[in-house]
Amino acid sequence: MPSKSRIPARLRGIHLYPIFAGEPNWIQCERSIIPEEANGSIPVRFSFIVPQAMTQENTPTIFAAEKRAHWRALEPEIWSIQGADLDAVPTQSILTTLWDQPRWLEAYHLYDQRGSELFEQICGLPEYYLTRTENAILETHARDIIARAPVRCIVELGAGYSKKTVHLLTEQLRQRGSSIFAPIDVSAAGLRASRAAVRSAFPEIQFHGLHARYEEGFSAIDKNLPTLFVFLGSTIGNFNHSDFPRFFRTLSAAMGPGDFLLLGADRVKDVKVLEDAYNDSRGVTAEFILNVFDHINRLLHGNFARANMRYYSRYNPEWQRIEMYAVARARQDIRFADIDAAFQWQKDEKILVEISRKFDPLRLQEQLRFFDLGAVEHFTDPREWFSVLLFKKES
Ligand code: AVJ
């Protein structure tokens, strides 16, 4: 509260706006001076304009200085972007791609609560070799990976905390003594679970969960902080031919010189092995894929009927990808109650719910050169079914 003696007479009755040096994104804190204090004249009002960053507590140093003001603590050690609405986009995306020809969906809609549980089950299926194989590669080579990437911070995109991450964090602690671990995830529940696990298994590790989409998350990381970005599970397999270059262009731009990227990629292989992995004998994959329609019904008050559809998947060799479809068993009029939108889902018409691309590791290394990511090392399993690739950002 400013004292009245310091308010010059000529300023009484008008607004004073002391402005502190800082960044955009202002918030305004008003302080009115009570009448007696204003010496009988018209009250003077002080409006303090302060940058938002000054009102925040300990925004972690992992954020670039110019980004810090946008992040706030959602809860302890979990950060999110002020005003970001992670739920706003799904509706728009679903309506756009369902009206495309042929109809399709973006893969991230698969991960509601039930979808995430089903995916966990998939990872344990005998036919689904990906998770086990990648985990074995990381277990064998974590020491080498960490030795080759001398960083202070590990940023993991998606899947906050898993057995695979444990191998990297264990080695990071062993070789460097301390570290920052910053998972980026759109699921706050996933980040909480990750935080709990890291606190108990690795109390020496500084945890900062970023509740954001990948691109918002990694773009906020301070380029001066030597960082290893980790993107495992062959999640890049979900990216279509416009997502893929956009993702790597943005990631590369967000990386500081000398930062590293560890990328897990499932490989082109025998078609039977591939097709079985996405058409398991227990039908868990079918349930996972068709569950997206229950999720959409809830989001948009739609009327997709599960009894009216079946799961179909195949390996498309020209596009080197598994395609996972929902097929209508009979014609159905799809309506969305909240919005004035409807379409006819014809008998046998397929909706492409997910793609899972398969890669040639040498080709992938060649491709990422274009984004200034130089190949450092290639790790694989004895059957050469899965690749874990280490890249270094070259400025
Ligand atoms: C999480 C995208 C890596 O493509 O193998 C598994 C998803 N879908 N079974 C994959 C998935 C059906 C998975 N990714």
Structural class: alpha/beta
Rough outline: globular
Total strands: 18
Radius of gyration: 26 Å
Number of helices: 10
Q: How can the largest sheet be summarized?
A: 10 strands, mixed
Sequence of secondary-structure elements: EEEEEHHHEHEHEEHEHEHHEEEEEHEE
- Average pLDDT: 88
Low-confidence parts: 1-5, 20-38, 50-56
User: What multimeric state do the chains show?
Assistant: single chain
What share of the residues does DSSP label as strand, in percent?
25-35%
Q: Tell me the distance between the termini.
A: 50 Å
Which bin fits the share of residues in helices?
A: 25-40%
Q: Which ions, cofactors or small ligands are bound in this entry?
A: N,N,N-trimethyl-histidine
Describe the structure.
It is built from 10 helices and 18 strands. With 395 residues, it is of the alpha/beta class. The chain has helices at 88-98, 113-123, 129-148, 163-176, 188-201, 214-219, 243-254, 271-277, 284-300, 361-369; strands at residues 15-16, 26-32, 45-51, 71-75, 78-81, 153-157, 179-185, 205-207, 209-211, 227-231, 260-266, 309-316, 321-328, 332-336, 341-345, 350-357, 373-380, 386-393. A hairpin with a 2-residue loop joins strand 4 (71-75) and strand 5. Bound molecules: N,N,N-trimethyl-histidine.
List the helices and strands and how they pair.
Elements: E1 15-16, E2 26-32, E3 45-51, E4 71-75, E5 78-81, H1 88-98, H2 113-123, H3 129-148, E6 153-157, H4 163-176, E7 179-185, H5 188-201, E8 205-207, E9 209-211, H6 214-219, E10 227-231, H7 243-254, E11 260-266, H8 271-277, H9 284-300, E12 309-316, E13 321-328, E14 332-336, E15 341-345, E16 350-357, H10 361-369, E17 373-380, E18 386-393
Parallel strand pairs: 1-3, 5-9, 6-7, 6-10, 7-8, 7-9, 10-11
Antiparallel strand pairs: 2-3, 4-5, 11-18, 12-13, 13-16, 14-15, 17-18
Bound molecules: N,N,N-trimethyl-histidine.
